Amino acid sequence: MMQQDKFVNRSREYQDRVTIKPRGESNEPYKGNQFFGEFKTKSLYIKVLARDFGAEDGDRIKVLVNDVTQVENITLLNQFQSIQVTLQPGFNKVDFEALNQGYSGPNTAEFQVYDDQGKLLSANEWNLATGFKATFIFVKE
Predict the structure, then answer these.
(1) What's the rounded Cα separation, in Å, for the pair 133 and 86?
(2) Which of 98, 94, 127, 95 is nearest to 110 (CA)?
(3) How far is CA 60 from CA 4, 16, 74, 134, 135, in A?
(4) Among 61, 58, 39, which residue's Cα sits nearest to residue 114?
(5) Is 29 exposed, middle or buried (0-12, 13-18, 19+ CB in 10 A)?
(6) What is residue 20's predicted lDDT score, i.e. its pLDDT?
(7) Which of 33, 92, 101, 111 is most solvent-facing, going by the fewest CB within 10 Å?
């Protein structure tokens, strides 16, 4: 006759608490377009300086002016890159669409917008999920 010892393993009770469960990257807070304002100007063009303020992780954007693609694909780097947008008389809607979120979401960018005289019109940051836009309105007088 053989006796089996049955020991209680208390670690099983806590296993669920300490196990790291794989989860998809949550980008819920970044789902939505961002509006950065309306500006009146007499400039012939605006100059946008944009850079990835987070990790240089392959964030890409597209630039649209009045819903027409002006720049198809820009990969954001940690140093500023310049994008010049020619303004038409009247209403000009400039969209920056997040084409991806790099390997570390969301799509992060710091930007500065200058008129043709070098005057700073706006500066800010965006955090966008893929497919969403950051929008500016420029009214050329």
Answers:
(1) 20
(2) 127
(3) 63, 38, 5, 13, 16
(4) 39
(5) exposed
(6) 45
(7) 33
Sign of the alpha-carbon torsion through 35, 64, 78, 105: positive
Q: What class has domain 27-140?
A: mainly beta
> How does 55-94 read in b/e, with b if 16+ C-beta sit within 10 Å?
eebebbbbbbbeeeeeeeebebeeeeeebebebeeeebeb
CA–CA dist 87, 117 (Å, integer)? 14
Residue 111 host element (H or E):
strand 107-115
pLDDT tens track for 25-69: 556 777 889 999 999 999 999 999 999 988 888 999 999 999 999
Average pLDDT of the chain to the nearest whole number? 86
Domain-wise residue ranges, the chain: 27-140
Residue that the structure tokens 């649209």 belong to? 64
| Helix/strand/coil for 35 | strand
